[in-house]
Amino acid sequence: MEKLDLESKWHNLTLFENKRGYKALRISSNCLPDLFLACDLEGYRCLLLYLPKNESFKLNESDKNKLVLSYLPSKSIVLIKLKDFDFIDLFNELIISIYTKIKSIPKSEDASKEFIKTFYKWSAFFENTCISKLSEAEIQGLFGELFILNRYLEDSNPQVINDLLSSWKGLYDTANDFEFDSKNVEVKTRNESRSFVKISSEFQLENEYNRGLELIVVTIKLDLINGKSIYDLLLLIVAQIRRNFGDLSILYHAFNQKQLSIESLKEYNNHRFFVQKTELFDATKEGFPKLCRSNINDEIFDLRYNLRITKLAPFLIEEIKY
After folding, report:
1. Which of the residues 187, 205, 232, 261 has an alpha carbon 20 to 30 A from that of 139?
2. Phi, psi at residue 22, to the nearest 5°?
3. What is the pLDDT of residues 127-167, one digit of tens each?
4. Quick one: the chain helix, strand, coil %, rounded to 5?
């Protein structure tokens, strides 16, 4: 199910008369559990899961600023209600996630458990956060990381999609932007006019646990007409996650580390870039120029320096031009 399909159903729901109670519409005939979209008398959007009348059910209800989880015993309904219209897009994502997880579950008990589990996994994303403005350098850095994440996901499949998503650590304040079993990857984004990238600590190019370290340099240029924004890249990533039946909450959780929401990223749509090329370097090869924790004195710390990319040809593994 896509968001456009869901919005079409919401539109159809508004055409119903609402004399009392809820206006409700079954989400899909292909969904085994009785899952319905609904609007209450105040116009708030809801998701309803109908349970068998004779089935006993207990629920610790949750009533937060944006989202409510409750149980209506007289109708045997588990209900999620959105109380803030500014979060409609995110609520649609939550609904798609729940639908994807429970649509093929035949037993109502198992479906209700997954319904509630998914609610709590997503509820934190509906909290009020004090969103800070991203600087130009942070926008470009995030753009480069999302570009590489999207490239990794292009070769993914349902078996590895969640592992690939979890490998992205760029918003978690770890040493490197990606952490795999066999290697770490540091991503640096530079404007076409610059010949260097900034290394922000003595740990960024450290070969952790001797498992390999690669440096990817993404070279971009400003292009307000044909370029992509970080929000555009995010939409591509979300599409790939859905196509491979991945867990979208992994991505949302990463953005939540920096108090960023998917909606807040639209604010940066006027920052658009075209990727000219990516260069992949082996940062563990002997002679690679770097200052890191293992090759400087203990008295030196909080290190920051510039690394000239034009001098790294001997360590180049791959160059891709776009």
Report:
1. 205
2. -105, 145
3. 766 566 899 999 999 999 999 999 999 989 999 999 999 99
4. 35, 25, 40
